[in-house]
Amino acid sequence: MLKIMKIAMASCIFAVSLSAHAIPVTDVVSVNNFFNNFNEYRSWTHDITNDGFSIGDTVNSASLSFQFSDDGDWWAGEWARIIVNVTNLGTFEIDSGALGLNVNASGVASLNDDGTLFVSVRNRGGDFYLGNVTLTADVTAAAVSVSEPATLALFGLGLMGLGFSRKKLSA
After folding, report:
1. CA nearest neighbour of 12 among 150, 113, 122, 133
2. Average pLDDT in the 53-71 region?
3. What values do phi and psi take at 134, rounded to 5?
4. What are the Cα distances from residue 169, in Å, to 4, 42, 158, 162, 165?
5. How far is C-alpha 138 from the chain's CA centre?
6. Which residue among 9, 24, 88, 147 is least packed, with the fewest CB closer than 10 Å?
7. Which residues, other chains included, contact 67 with Cβ-Cβ below 8 Å and sequence gap of 6+?
8. How far is C-alpha 93 from the geometric centre of its chain's CA atoms?
């Protein structure tokens, strides 16, 4: 009986430890737009509720990766302004490749509220192409509540186990 109790306890600890780990949740939006006019912009909303996030889970941090391409024409430089929710993350010179940015606190709060993140890119000079934009969020699943009867049953089993082990020691 003591061996069974040890196995049960180890299984419970293992199950609890699994639920405490953060998991990456990824959402990809294909913007696929060639920006060739000053002030031209594209906006979209990332929705991680379709990708494994449930309302009540916690987004610890998030990042965005923009896949830009510069056609290498005569422009002195291509520039894009990136806005997440209502916060201007800055204006960036565009080169071919990925531009990685961390999502600010208001963006993480928006993800925690409803699982969505509004993103906008505006052409601030030159011409460039924007392909996929990937949002990666570090998510901790919400704790699963144990109903009261189950808690009392576990407590009772623990007391029984202590009683059996004590009886075994005295015999």
Report:
1. 150
2. 92
3. -110, 125
4. 17, 73, 17, 11, 6
5. 4
6. 147
7. 97, 98, 130, 131, 132, 133, 134
8. 27
User: 30 or 143: which carries more pLDDT confidence?
Assistant: 30
Question: Both ends of the chain: CA-CA distance in Å?
Answer: 15
How many residues does the structure list for the chain? 171
Q: Which residues contact residue 80 at a Cβ distance below 8 angstroms, ignoring those fewer than 6 apart?
A: 35, 68, 91, 92, 94, 121, 122, 123, 124, 128, 130
Residues with Cβ < 8 Å from 98, sequence gap 6 or more? 65, 66, 67, 68
pLDDT range class, residue 71, cuts 50, 70, 90: confident
Decide if 22 contacts 57 (C-beta within 8 A): no
| AA letter at 6 | K
Q: Rounded to whole angstroms, how far apart are CA atoms 70 and 8?
A: 59
Token pair listed for 163? 């009683």
- Mean residue pLDDT of the chain comes to 83
Residue 64, beta-bridge partner list: 101, 135
Three-class secondary structure of residue 109 per DSSP:
helix
* Reported pTM: 0.71
Tell me what pLDDT residue 16 has.
Answer: 47
The tokens for 167 are: 């009886």
DSSP state of 70: -
